[in-house]
Design a protein that fits this description.
about 170 residues, alpha+beta
């Protein structure tokens, strides 16, 4: 999935005086793909935020993660699909805003790709899922709507806006 618009993030007056460069989406997407840990923020039933660190994979322009449908974040997504996903760094920033949902039963080819990406990233930690393990649920996806990224806040903050497909 490629952004349909690239612009500066909207900040209050005085935050950005003379930004000098733009980030390239391919570089940002590479950081999303290579990240090991992600922070997933969902919204509770009473509208309080909930943040949790997750393992996951960025694949085909979407973020996939797995876990029990009984987790707080899975139950939050069933109630309110709005999510924010971000990487760990406060300096090499990537923030993705979008919607999250359970994937009922992934297509076999997609399940194979997700399992292979998980295995490549987390096998040394003892996690190598099988493609059929999500046949009964437990797989989730985040579909980006907006991404914010920068490597130096005053020089290259960039906003990527995606077309809504779902």
């Amino acid at each position: 999935m490629q952004p349909v618009q690239v612009s500066r993030p909207i900040f209050p007056d005085g935050y950005l005086l003379n930004p000098t460069s733009w980030l390239d989406w391919d570089e940002v997407e590479q950081r999303l793909s290579q990240a090991r840990n992600y922070w997933l923020c969902t919204v509770r039933l009473d509208n309080r935020p909930h943040a949790v660190p997750k393992w996951g994979v960025w694949l085909q322009g979407r973020f996939y993660f797995d876990g029990s449908p009984q987790t707080r974040h899975a139950r939050n997504l069933a109630h309110n699909p709005q999510v924010t996903l971000h990487l760990e760094s406060g300096e090499q920033v990537v923030i993705v805003e979008g919607t999250g949902k359970a994937v009922e039963k992934p297509e076999p080819e997609l399940a194979q790709q997700i399992a292979a990406a998980y295995t490549q990233k987390y096998q040394q930690d003892g996690y190598a899922p099988q493609p059929d393990q999500w046949d009964e649920g437990g797989l989730f996806e985040v579909i980006p709507q907006v991404a914010l990224a920068w490597t130096k806040f005053t020089d290259d903050p960039t906003r990527f806006i995606f077309q809504k497909n779902d």
